[in-house]
Amino acid sequence: MQPRNTNRYCRRPRALLAVLPAVLLMLAGCDRQPAEPASGAMLYLRVCSTCHGQNGQGREPAFPPLAGSEWLALGPESVTVITLLGLTGEIEVAGRSYRGFMPPMAHLSDAEIAAIVEHVGQWADWTAPPDAERVAQLRAAVDGHGVLQGRAALEALLETLPDPAGS
User: Fold this and answer.
1) pLDDT per residue over 52-98, tens digit each?
2) What radius of gyration, in Å, describes the C-alpha atoms of the chain?
3) Torsion sign across C-alpha atoms 147, 152, 155, 156
4) What whole-number distance in Å separates Cα of residue 75 and Cα of residue 83?
5) 91 forms bridges with which residues in the sheet?
6) Residue 29 gets which letter from DSSP?
């Protein structure tokens, strides 16, 4: 009987020792402060651009453009509400019909939604997008509401929202 070759087993500890410094360096960074919140542009690219395009150009036939959309004339709170609740049904943007589905993005934080809406504002003529505090007020106001069914449902809901001062 030939002696068993244990040489291959002896290499494993050396391999583990070789990666140990890298693992320790990774673990050393675990107590650091979290990174700065993502910018509105980065959040838009991560969350919105798949459907609405990197430059807000949309993706026919299901996802309308944001750039040049008359829906932005409804104001930044309309975009906030759509982001929170989602939108379904046939809609018209810039003379074209779209029949897609935007899922609710209520899983995003108030600050993230505010940053995205601020970024979308580059394609609109808004004086000031809502801040995280206003997004929280809007979130509370629309809590329990289902996905919006087209523009008429959005406009009706916008009429019921509290004003920014909370009165």
Assistant:
1) 999 999 998 889 999 999 999 999 999 999 999 999 999 999 999 99
2) 24
3) negative
4) 13
5) 98
6) G
